[in-house]
Each structure stands twice: as structure tokens, then as C-alpha cells.
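anyone seen this seq b4? input:
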Amino acid sequence: MRAIGSIKGAAHESQQSQGLARDGIITAVATTAAIGFVAPAQAQPTAQLGAYVTDGWGGGTITSSPAGIDCHVSAWDPYSGDNPPNTTGPCTASFTVGTTVHFTATADAGSSINFPPDPNPVTIRDGYNYTWVMFCPNDGLCSAG
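predicted toks r here
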């Protein structure tokens, strides 16, 4: 409060010496100066957004705009005896609440997009947000999801 009084007093003295002392002008100057000292920036709330790549056995990548998600899965033959592949790249990211995030799905060579990202776009809200996509191999062998 002392800083505000000093600012208000200095503004009043300056205005009086010029013969322009008016309560409205002095109050506006003091208020503007006080706001500059008192109003720190508030952190914007964020929430998680996850991209889930369902097991369609095909390969591809889902990316987000704004950037944050760049999630890839490789094609997999469930009859090969190999374990299913893990996703690579960030499949979860934090975005500011209220941000609208758009997705692009790109199939790898030999695969296609069976179900495009859904929902798309996503407007981030408090809590957990998600989208999902399914890639299938072009040879016709595709999981039902």
C-alpha cells in the first residue's frame, strides 16, 4: 500500500505543479501503476490428451496440431508368433484447457487407415481427453478392433 501512496502522492505533486490536479487523473495514474505491480500472470490450466492406436495390425502415425503428439505403431502379423509392437513417440501430451487440437493420421507403406482419428478435432477440457485411430494392412488381414 505504501508504494501506491507514494505513486499517488508523486502523481498529485506533479499534477499540482502544472496546475492540473484532478482526482480522476490522479486516481487513474495511481490505479494503472498499482496494477503493474500487483497483477502477476496466472498459469493457464492444462489437461492431458492421449492418442490411442487400436490393434488393427497395420502401421501408421497420428500427429497433432498444435504439436505434441507424434505417435507411431508398426504393422504386425498376429500369426507370426511375434509379440505386438509397442507404440513409439509421444502418444500423450498436455495442452491448455480450451485449445482445439486437430489430428492427422498417416498410414505406413503397406497399410491403410481403417478408422480415422475420432473424435477430431478435440477441444481440451479438464480431465483426460483422447482420440483414437486404427490402421490395417492392405492385404486384407485386419482386426475388428
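The CA atoms of residues 9 and 65 lie 51 Å apart. Helices lie at 2-17, 23-38. kinda curious what u guys think
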